[in-house]
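Morning, I've got a small favour to ask if you have a moment. I've dropped the whole record in just underneath, so have a look.
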Amino acid sequence: MATESLQRSYRAPCPGCGAPVEFRSAQSTHAVCGYCQSTVVRSGDTLARTGKMSELFEDFSPLQLMASGKWEGKSFTLIGRLQYKYAQGTWSEWIAGFDDGSTGSLSEDNGAFVFSTALATSSAIPAAHNFVVGKTTAINGKSFAIAANNTASLLSAQGELPKLPALGAPFEVVELRGDQGDVISIDYNVMPAAVSSGRAVLLEDLQLKGLKDEQAKAESGQQFACPNCAASLQVSLASTKSLTCSSCNSIIDVSQGVAGQLIHALQTEPVAPLITLGSMGQLQGVMWQLVGFQHRMGFEVDDPDEHFGWTEYLLYNKKRGFTFLVDSTEGWSLATPTTGAPTLSPNGSTATYLSNKYSQKYSYEAETTYVAGEFYWRVERGQKSNNTDFEKGAVLLSREETPNEVTWSMGSKLSSDTVAQVFKLKDSDLGGKDAQKSGDTRPLSSAAGLSFGTIVILTLVLLLFLFLISRCSSCDPKVENCSSSRSGSYGGFSSGGGHK
């Protein structure tokens, strides 16, 4: 969008180098000079240099300054960018300047995007420690689930900014989610706390123009040597926070970029995915690429010896973000992290989301036992969460809770035939196990054509088998999907982190 289309624009020389620094929004108070990285503050028509901003680390995002689009019929331009760090990695918040001088923000949310604008509240916002993850609160008379309470700090910034936290100084960020798909962010880097409200968006729906040319990326910036075995590795996705080495199976944290010190963790006893990493397939009208794989174990809360396993395939589409293909003893399903959060009944037996009520089916503890590929969160072997699964017909909801965050995912069941056709699998690839193909599960009455004697023998054998597996389990939970006295979960739909 051209500068003259804005209602106002102010340009002055940078106090550090003399290059022009432009302010397009009436709400902007700070800017970072694109030439010398000086941080400047505006006071009327005067600019003052307050320091120097750290260099941005390259995250290969398709977004860039001066890209333009539309939000709810209003034109905007991306005029600034803030890079933040928190315990689970990093995120970028892009400042969108509207024609009328107001601003909004476009930020990451579970591998997708949320567009937010400022929200005026009818009462004062309490201190961050009053928001307990997993509880509920009310904003402007509406109930919200407290989804996250994290400490963050500013890593770097560029462009024109309506806010600029002190570089490296920690502050709290609280996230609330509603049952209509809305999300509220409370930012304590200013006092009183800044509150914004947003909802999930697809980049294609924003009609964005001026995105970064994918072919213009410097491939050398994506390549690095494995810190464990020195094998050559490459980051393929803009939002990757962790990836594994295909040579030594190490998990490598790249949330701070590939130029700094790389933290890695070794993995033994690799688990082979049924679907090869890099495979392409079309599900629900969208072409997906399989970029990540993890094996997870579930444990009964009241009996840790009772365990079961499942696998999750992380799928990626440039315009749709990420989704999960889950293979559990309940069958195959496709699930995507939600922006909002369902409302739980007082006893937790039901969850209501987008005006639909779901009934609880399973509650268990989950642990990640093996990972491969790239992930948009800092995945680690041994990560644990408390999970609850809900269902309504073929639609599934899953809740994951960690000490600092609660995430939800929503999905639907798939037949094994669909998965096999999409990813060109054979019955032998699926292991021939009905449980693994249980999008097609059928009742025992289908054996009606068998003789009475045969049915009696089969029944005795089945009873003996059930007795044996109720006493012990011989499978290795690190290597295969294990189950004991229960049929298993929907897989948990690990979302790997919340808003930002």
About this structure: The helical segments are 219-222, 416-422, 452-471. The chain is about 5% helix and 45% strand.
